[in-house]
Every structure is written in structure tokens, then in C-alpha cells.
Write a structure and sequence with these properties.
By secondary structure, the protein is an alpha/beta fold. The chain contains 18 helices and 15 strands. A six-stranded mixed β-sheet has the order 1-3-2-4-12-5. A three-stranded antiparallel β-sheet has the order 9-6-10. Helix 10 packs across helix 11 and helix 17 packs antiparallel against helix 18.
Length: 545
């Protein structure tokens, strides 16, 4: 791995195919035993919610988020002292933004460095390049690893767990049980996030990035869809009719991006299909791809595609470009994570009103929504001496400050008067500089973050709408039973096996393959590793319950 300068590096794609690079990647000879079966399990960190401003809309145990209709007026301080010692810390994470200005010309970067008490050398990897770059990092020299590494959950990285077990610091002594009390903001990360991150070999190796319960969501142009007949309690037939009426001229009701399988997650959940894996009462794991409801969802999407409701370039446009098409009205809807609500409301303000769609029913059965992995990846540390590990944990504890704290405001909005001003209601409003220097382009939020809340600056009605939507859909969220579990086969072959299914879904919906091909693809998937994954997940599930 090349040496890192203090300047940000945006890593370009390697000139090799992803599957080939990842399959060749290894972290040493042989395979480690990353399963939790037969291991003494480290207790999860003892949860202590951070103190802060009382929300206007209450959270629920089931998973509805706390909502704030106004920005807190009195910000708390969540850390007692500057965590760093003036040393240089090398970090690496995924990014969904554009490359930031270098540290020497970036006042947001400088302000964060001052608050943390360290110099930050940041390697930023675009989402498109993440798999390829991580393959290189995982196969490289252990001494060249950054101090802090974000392991993004959006992709399957072959032998990821083995890499973490061998190369990352075991954080169990620092975070398990009551030990986490030394890092109050990390202690404020809810247990569900740690569980969905999971243990490796019974130990805790990472710090999860907590996320809300709703996952992949169908975001609609509310005006367009309402005018076309969208209503609560709609059926799949209603949905198809609305999509047809909302498609006209150069406007397409349904947008999709490369790799999104035509919004397959949303539609399979509406058909009540398992999301990747379901577990029976006796602990048997059943793959969602083998469920008839999953196949029915593919057939429904193929029908929508044939009827012309999808944007024509749905298999080639990027997610970033699709978002632009949604904002300018070319597409009337798109699948995206629920957590994307903030830019949706902010960027479309005055042009359209975004709305999270309620699921349609199929055959008289009310539909479900996708339950997200409550950990949007996790952060691991390079092996180091105890004093260094503790310093790095203090830095992450600072970044994990809760909403309503001074530390949270700095990391999310920068410096008042420089990167933001206050609106009439006290909400931060980015300045022209804040539109460029921010934690999207310098993605510190993917290293550590406190529990997420519902808040849209200056838009209290949006917060109320999102909270009300969550109250309706959280009880019908469909969870992937494999979250937080280890499977040796998935670690080694997950990328290839997933691509086999994804390519078939895309081919069928796009009209290149007949639906009759699906059962054969599933049989091949099961024979080449799917059934082994089921057995391994069942074993790990039993060990964790």
C-alpha cells in the first residue's frame, strides 16, 4: 500500500474485475475459525443512553426513532477533554460525496483536527471503488494499514471476518461489558447495533455505525404519485396502475440504478418475501431466493418494466445520477436507504415533496418493508500498544457524540459563522463554504457516529411525517435473520454467489431471461454454496441464542 500523505486521496478503480481481485485476496495461509459456535461469547458493551435534549416525538422500543421538530437551543458537552496527543492518525472510509479540498485549505478539516487533538491523514474510497480497494488493503502489508478503518456493510468482502480477526485489534478488553464506561459516547450506542455488527470468534472487534430500523425505502415524488392515485392501503394492482399513470413523456414513475435490481428489496418486502434469510422456530435457515413470494416479486417487476414504468437506463445509471434524476423530476421514485431522507428533503425543497411510500398489499396480504442491518458497517483499529488503542478509542468516542451536543454539531455542520449560520428557528443552515466543506465530502460520520434521530433543519412537518410513517411500518419490517452471524462459506464465496442471483434478477426484469430460468438459478446457487451457508448460519445462530 502506498504511503499516505495528509492530503486526501481519492482512490481510482483498479483495472481488474471485482470478482477476480476479491477471490484472489487472502489474509494469510489457511482459514481462521471465525464462527461463534463453541466459543465463550464476550458480553456486549453495557448500554448507557447519553443525556441530551428531550425529543419532541418519542422513540419506541420497537424501533421508531426519536424526532426533533426544532434544533436544541442548549447544546450539551459530551466529552470532558481533547482526546488526542498531537500525533498523526491515518484513517480510511467509504465515501458517497465528492473529493474534499486538501487539509491545508479546508477549514472544516482543520476545525475537526483541533477538536480531536490530532492530525488526520484521510484515505477516502468512493463507493464504486470500495470493493477493489479493500481487496488490495486486505491482501497488503499489516504494517501499512491505517490506524482506523471503516468496514462498509454495503458490499460482501470475501474473508472479511478472517481479515478482521487477524489484522485488527481485539477490542473486547476495552469495550465489553462495563469496560465501555471509559468511553461514554460509545456506551450510548444501542445494543441492537452491536448485535447486528456481530462478534467474530466470540470476540468484539469493531464499533458499529448505528442505523434506524427501516432499510431500503421507496422514495416518491409525493405530488406526482398522489395525483396518479397513490393512497394508503393500496394493492399491487393499484401500484401498477399508479406507476402507469405517473409515466408520461419524459417522466418515468420508477427509477432504478445499476445494482439495485430494479428496487427489488422494496418489492420483495411488499410481497412478504424473506430478506435474504429467514429462520424457522427450530433454527433452520431458509433462503429468501427460494421462496415463491420472492419469485412473484421478480415477476411483478418484470411486468412493470414491460409496461414502460421504469426509467429506460435503469441497469446502467449510477445511484448518484439517479438521485439527480429524482430531484429534477425525470423519475418519480427511487429505492434508497431510509437514512437518505435528509438530503432528499433538503435538496428537493421547493421543487417537490419527497415521501416514503407505504407498502402495497399482495393477494389480500398487507405488505412489509425492509428491515435494515442496524449497523451500517463498523470501524476496526490497527493492532497497536494499549496506549495507542485507548487514544484511538477516545477519538472515536468524540466522533460518536449524540445529537444535541457541541461535538455532534461540529462534526455535522462545522464552525458557526464559517460553515453554517442559524435559521429563524435556530437550525443550522450551511453557508456557501459549508456546501463544499462538510462531513459528506470529508466523511467522518463513517468512522463513528452516535445514535441517529429524526431531524430536518427548518422542516418540522417533514419530521412529523417521517415519525408517523415509522409508526406504521416498523411493526411490519422484515429482518434478515443472518445479521450479526458468521458463515465461512459466505465469507469466502458471498460475492460470487450474490452476483449469480443478482444477475438473474436483473436479466429477468429487463426481459433478457424468462422467469422460468429462476428455479434453475436457485438450484445452482444452493449447490454451489447456498445450502452450506444455511447450515453454517444455523450453527452460529444457535450459539448466539
Amino acid at each position: 500500500m502506498p504511503s499516505l500523505s495528509r492530503r486526501t486521496l481519492l482512490l481510482s478503480a483498479a483495472a481488474v474485475s471485482v470478482p477476480g481481485v476479491l477471490t484472489a485476496c487472502s489474509t494469510g495461509s489457511g482459514d481462521s475459525d471465525v464462527s461463534n459456535a463453541g466459543k465463550k461469547l464476550a458480553p456486549w458493551p453495557a448500554y448507557r443512553p447519553a443525556s441530551g435534549p428531550k425529543p419532541d416525538l418519542a422513540a419506541t422500543e420497537a424501533g421508531v426513532q426519536a424526532g426533533y421538530t426544532a434544533y436544541p437551543t442548549d447544546l450539551v458537552r459530551s466529552v470532558a477533554r481533547t482526546p488526542g496527543d498531537g500525533s498523526t492518525v491515518k484513517v480510511m472510509s467509504v465515501s458517497f460525496g465528492t473529493p474534499p479540498k486538501p487539509a491545508s485549505a479546508n477549514r472544516f478539516w482543520a476545525a475537526v483536527e483541533k477538536a480531536l487533538g490530532v492530525k488526520i491523514e484521510y484515505t477516502i474510497i468512493s463507493q464504486a471503488d470500495y470493493q477493489k480497494k479493500m481487496a488490495t488493503v486486505m491482501a497488503g502489508d499489516a504494517d501499512a494499514l491505517p490506524d482506523i478503518i471503516n468496514m462498509f456493510s454495503g458490499f460482501v468482502l470475501p474473508r472479511e471476518a478472517e481479515f478482521v480477526q487477524r489484522r485488527a485489534e481485539d477490542l473486547t478488553p476495552y469495550l465489553s461489558g462495563e469496560a465501555v464506561a471509559d468511553y461514554p459516547n460509545l456506551a450510548g450506542i444501542p445494543t441492537h447495533a452491536w448485535k447486528d455488527m456481530g462478534r467474530i470468534g466470540g470476540r468484539i472487534f469493531g464499533i458499529p455505525l448505528e442505523r434506524p430500523l427501516p432499510g431500503s425505502t421507496l422514495w416518491t415524488n409525493q405530488g406526482l404519485f398522489t395525483d396518479a392515485g397513490m393512497k394508503q392501503g393500496w394493492t399491487s394492482e393499484d401500484f401498477a396502475a399508479v406507476a402507469g399513470r405517473a409515466t408520461s413523456g419524459r417522466t418515468y414513475a420508477l427509477g432504478a440504478a445499476q445494482g439495485s435490481l430494479f428496487g427489488n428489496a422494496v418489492h420483495s418486502a411488499a410481497h412478504n418475501a424473506p430478506q435474504n434469510w429467514a429462520v424457522t422456530k427450530d433454527g433452520t435457515f431458509q433462503p429468501g431466493c427460494a421462496d415463491d413470494r420472492y419469485k412473484a416479486a421478480i415477476a411483478f417487476q418484470a411486468r412493470l418494466r414491460k409496461n414502460g414504468s421504469y426509467y429506460p437506463d435503469a441497469t446502467s445509471v449510477s445511484q448518484i445520477d439517479l438521485t439527480t434524476l429524482f430531484y429534477n423530476g425525470t423519475v418519480g421514485s427511487m429505492q434508497d436507504g431510509f437514512g437518505a431522507y435528509l438530503p432528499k428533503y433538503r435538496e428537493t425543497k421547493g421543487k417537490l415533496t419527497p415521501a416514503a411510500a407505504l407498502p402495497y398489499s399482495v393477494g389480500g396480504e398487507p405488505g412489509g418493508i425492509v428491515a435494515a442491518r442496524r449497523s451500517f458497517g463498523y470501524t476496526v483499529l490497527k493492532k497497536a500498544k494499549k496506549e495507542r488503542v485507548e487514544l484511538l478509542l477516545r477519538i472515536l468516542d468524540h466522533l460518536a457524540a449524540p445529537f444535541g451536543s457541541q461535538e455532534w454539531e461540529l462534526v455535522h455542520y462545522g464552525v458557526e459563522g464559517t460553515h453554517f449560520t442559524r435559521g429563524d428557528d435556530g437550525s443550522p443552515e450551511p453557508t456557501e463554504l459549508g456546501e463544499v466543506e462538510n462531513n459528506t465530502n470529508l466523511p467522518l460520520k463513517y468512522l463513528a457516529e452516535g445514535p441517529q434521530v429524526l431531524f430536518v433543519p427548518g422542516m418540522p412537518d417533514a419530521v412529523r411525517a417521517l415519525h408517523a410513517w415509522q409508526q406504521k411500518v416498523v411493526p411490519i419490517a422484515i429482518r434478515d435473520a443472518s445479521f450479526g452471524l458468521q458463515s465461512r462459506t459466505r465469507n469466502a464465496q458471498g460475492t460470487t454467489l450474490k452476483a449469480m442471483l443478482d444477475d438473474a434478477v436483473t436479466g429477468i426484469v429487463a426481459g433478457r431471461l424468462p422467469l422460468s430460468e429462476w428455479d434453475g438459478v436457485v438450484r445452482k446457487w444452493r449447490a454451489q454454496g447456498g445450502d452450506r451457508m444455511a447450515a453454517e448460519l444455523a450453527k452460529d445462530f444457535a450459539a448466539n441464542t
